[in-house]
Design brief:
Layout (H helix, E strand, L loop, with lengths): L8 H8 L2 E3 L5 E3 L6 H8 L5 H36 L4 E3 L4 H8 L4 E15 L2 E8 L1 H7 L4 E4 L7 E5 H6 L7 E5 L5 E10 L3 H5 L2 E6 L1 H7 L4 H4 L1 E6 L5 H11 L7 E3 L1 H6 L6 H35 L1 H9 L4 H41 L14 H28 L2 H6 L7 H10 L2 H12 L1 H31 L10 E4 L7 H8 L4 E7 L5 E5 L16 E7 L1 H6 L4 E4 L1 H4 L4 E5 L11 E6 L2 E11 L11 E6 H8 L6 E6 L5 H9 L6 E4 L1 H43 L1 H9 L4 H43 L7 H18 L1 H9 L2 H5 L4
Parallel strand pairs: 5-10, 7-9, 16-21, 18-20
Antiparallel strand pairs: 1-2, 3-11, 3-12, 4-5, 4-11, 6-9, 7-10, 8-9, 13-22, 13-23, 14-22, 15-16, 15-19, 17-20, 18-21, 19-20
């Protein structure tokens, strides 16, 4: 140290920048007093491990979460490009000149027309036509070429795989199809395109034509289905580009639509749900960064307390407060150099494990996820936390170390505690427990950091758990009620006899149906007049839907308020949530049915209904018996089938054979498979986040408690010297540990539950109307994890202290 003068031998060596001899005769070369950081670590290798481990854990937490989020976004972008098309915006009803000008813009990568909407027939089934230029088809649509070549002439076409297989066709064959005007036209098959879930869902074939070929057969329905799609270049601010396109070409709002899923993942969407997702993502990022900062700060604070004796020696040798500050900061940066790479490697390794798990489940679906790719986002976040936040976190402990008086530090009495608290707790509790609680509250900053550590862990866990609920809510095809095959009545009747026959087919696991009434006018007694008044426009009529026992059991997940059992009683119904709906549980409605007026009482509110036939208006759900008493004997409108693992295409073919002539058959298996893959992607990463948070919480608690106990080793030795027994010492340490944990859990609930409710409101309640409920399960898991970890974390350090000689604990060097 340049400022040290007239000091003993070690001080002179520090001043001159010479070597310092260790007790075993080895020497450590130093050019500056800051070289003491390396010298100290070589002599006391264990003392720096606490802060180093805190840095590594926080960097691991941040790197893993950001890397996994990055990989999840990449995966979902690829998924939505495949299923929705790789375009950013689509324009409707624009003229050719405007389209050409937009396509020529410098910020546009690809632009072209995609035609849809016209239908014909082939082999007795509905045939859906689509058309596009080859570049637009390959780069901006959800369709893809499986084999062959793209049609270049108006008489050439692609046919989907199912049509090729069912009709026994091959590339090069000619087929006659019925085009929209009802006439026959012959096409040469030049290739095969991939099946789309949307086609199988409506039991239709698909044919792809060139632009010229589609224009030749297009009817009035093509007007609504034809769009001019635009893909902007990378690096372009899409919001600016979109605004410029709207303004320059004077596009009305109805002429413009965005690819919400893709733009949302790119952070460029203006959709309200996406804005809510951005808000939640920003909140979670702040929580993750705050958790990393608190972990590092707690480690440094404990490290300073541990080395207080050493800092006192330096002050006695002439070191100034400024030198001590610089020494602590240098010490932190040195620990970062050693710990950050470890945290980065661990976090990236966790991300690779998640990617490997996805590939192991479905290698074809997740083929584009790189197995050993580095996430620039995750690594950058980890490095920032590891160095910048370490630097900021070291400032406060450095100031604290510089402020300790030399004599107090050397004597080891830097932590005197607050006698009032000790006396108060000891009066109402056993002396050992009272002293443990007193120790916890005596260091205000240490208590604050430990509490913040628990609070952030609980808040992170509860906030991320909402993403699990969002994932389940956003994937209706994964609910227990989701069907693999569906049958909808046309002009025919679907009776209970058909349900019995369908149950006998090999591979059919469950069959259930729904009856749907025609729209019924109604009056609500609580609201004067018909609810078709201006204030409740659009809620003039309601559709009554029947549920069987299975569907009522599944409806528990959708129940927002009320009682499902009461809904099966005569005269009771459930209302399905609709934004702006004025009804409440307990309202009595008068329905105008063909058989006369019927009164029903609302006994509950559902967030969703399983049918797709009645969603255009207000829906009321009741049992089949109630449906019969209100509307009469009506045939089923929909029949759904769930298939077992043994089912195959033969099962679907057998179902078809039993259907009446006008019934509409829908195969949802491909859609369900795609949804399951997308769900599994989100589930792996979201549950991975929760696992990492839980794991880091445990490590942090063990690390912090171990550091806290080790920092008080000398005090514990003095207590043993004046007569405290080992059992009393352990109880005192347990009391201190549980005080931290219980205080942290209480404050964590106070902070975490409102956060959970706020995130739930942004993501779920605004979209689906589902009411927030106390997350009892997740809350219990994280609280038990914190309390059990706190209890187990002190056992090893307490056992170590009890096994040491009293003289050794008092004279333990920091």
């Amino acid at each position: 140290m340049k400022k040290i003068k007239n000091v003993p031998d070690i001080g002179e060596k520090l001043r001159k920048g010479n070597e310092v001899e260790r007790s075993d005769g080895d020497s450590i070369p130093m050019k500056s007093y800051l070289g003491l950081t390396e010298a100290y670590e070589k002599v006391h290798r264990k003392t720096g491990r606490i802060a180093a481990l805190c840095i590594a854990l926080s960097v691991c937490l941040v790197t893993a979460i950001f890397s996994m989020a990055d990989m999840a976004v990449r995966s979902q972008i690829n998924y939505f490009k495949k299923t929705g098309g790789n375009y950013h915006i689509s324009l409707h009803e624009v003229d050719a000149a405007t389209a050409a000008q937009i396509a020529a813009r410098a910020d546009v990568a690809v632009a072209g027309w995609v035609y849809q909407g016209s239908t014909g027939s082939l082999g007795g089934k509905l045939l859906s036509f689509a058309g596009a230029g080859e570049k637009a088809f390959s780069e901006m649509t959800e369709m893809s070429l499986v084999s062959g070549t793209y049609p270049k002439k108006a008489e050439e076409a692609l046919l989907n795989e199912t049509a090729m297989k069912n009709l026994g066709l091959a590339i090069g064959d000619e087929i006659k199809v019925t085009i929209p005007d009802g006439t026959q036209k012959t096409y040469l098959i030049t290739g095969t395109c991939r099946d789309l879930g949307s086609l199988l869902k409506v039991d239709a074939y698909g044919m792809i034509l060139s632009e010229e070929g589609f224009r030749q057969i297009a009817d009035e329905n093509a007007k609504d289905g034809s769009t001019f799609r635009i893909q902007f270049k990378k690096g372009i601010s899409m919001k600016t580009a979109l605004a410029d396109v709207k303004a320059k070409y004077r596009l009305a709002p109805e002429q413009f639509s965005e690819n919400t899923a893709l733009l949302g993942l790119l952070g460029e969407s203006e959709n309200s749900l996406m804005r809510s997702l951005y808000l939640v993502a920003a909140l979670l990022v702040l929580l993750v960064l705050a958790a990393g900062t608190v972990m590092i700060s707690a480690g440094f604070n404990t490290d300073v307390l541990w080395r207080i004796h050493f800092y006192g020696l330096l002050r006695c040798l002439g070191a100034t407060g400024g030198q001590i500050k610089r020494y602590v900061i240098a010490q932190g940066l040195r620990q970062s150099l050693r710990s950050v790479p470890v945290g980065l490697a661990a976090g990236q390794g966790m991300c690779w494990c998640a990617c490997a798990l996805l590939k192991a489940v479905n290698s074809s679906r997740f083929s584009e996820i790189p197995q050993l790719a580095f996430s620039g986002v995750g690594l950058s976040a980890g490095i920032i936390v590891g160095f910048l936040i370490v630097l900021l976190a070291a400032l406060s402990p450095a100031k604290k170390a510089a402020a300790v008086p030399p004599v107090t530090a050397v004597s080891g009495n830097a932590q005197t505690g607050r006698k009032g608290n000790r006396a108060l707790f000891s009066q109402v509790l056993p002396i050992d427990i009272g002293m443990g609680i007193s120790h916890a509250f005596s260091g205000r900053k240490n208590m604050a950091l430990m509490t913040c550590s628990f609070v952030l862990s609980i808040s992170l866990f509860l906030s991320f758990y909402v993403c699990v609920i969002f994932l389940n809510q956003a994937m209706p095809s994964l609910r227990p009620s989701a069907a693999d095959l569906s049958i909808t009545s046309g002009e025919c009747l679907l009776d209970s006899g058909l349900i019995k026959e369908l149950k006998t087919i090999h591979g059919v696991e469950m069959v259930y149906g729904r009856k749907v009434s025609h729209p019924l006018e109604l009056v609500n007694r609580r609201i004067s007049g018909h609810i078709g008044d201006e204030e409740y426009s659009g809620l003039q009529q309601a559709v009554l839907i029947s549920y069987d026992d299975n569907q009522f059991r599944w409806a528990k997940e959708d129940l927002m308020e009320g009682n499902l059992k009461e809904a099966e009683a005569p005269g009771n119904v459930l209302a399905v949530y609709e934004k702006g709906m004025p009804w409440k549980e307990g309202d009595v409605l008068t329905l105008h049915t063909p058989a006369g007026e019927k009164e029903v009482r609302i006994v509950g509110i559902l967030s969703d209904v399983y049918t797709s036939l009645g969603k255009n208006g207000v829906c009321l759900v009741c049992s089949e018996e109630n449906f019969y008493s209100i509307v009469g004997n009506v045939a089923y409108a929909e029949i759904d089938l769930k298939l077992s693992g043994k089912a195959d295409d033969k099962t679907a073919a057998a179902v078809r054979k039993l259907l009446p002539g006008d019934a509409v058959f829908s195969d949802k298996r491909l859609n369900n498979t795609e949804a399951r893959d997308s769900y599994f992607t989100g589930a792996v990463f979201i549950y991975g986040f929760l696992f990492i948070i839980a794991l880091i919480t445990v490590f942090q608690i063990f690390n912090s408690m171990n550091a806290s106990v080790s920092a008080r080793t000398k005090q514990y030795g003095m207590m043993r010297a004046i007569g405290m027994g080992d059992r009393q010492l352990v109880r005192m340490i347990e009391a201190e540990s549980l005080t931290y944990a219980i205080t942290g859990c209480i404050v964590g609930c106070i902070v975490g539950l409102p956060l959970n409710k706020a995130v739930f409101g942004w993501l779920i309640q605004e979209k689906w109307g589902t009411s927030w409920q106390l997350p009892a399960g997740p809350l219990l898991v994280i609280l038990l994890l914190c309390l059990i970890s706190a209890e187990l974390s002190i056992r090893q350090p307490a056992r170590r202290i009890c096994g040491m000689a009293i003289v050794d604990t008092i004279n333990k060097q920091q």
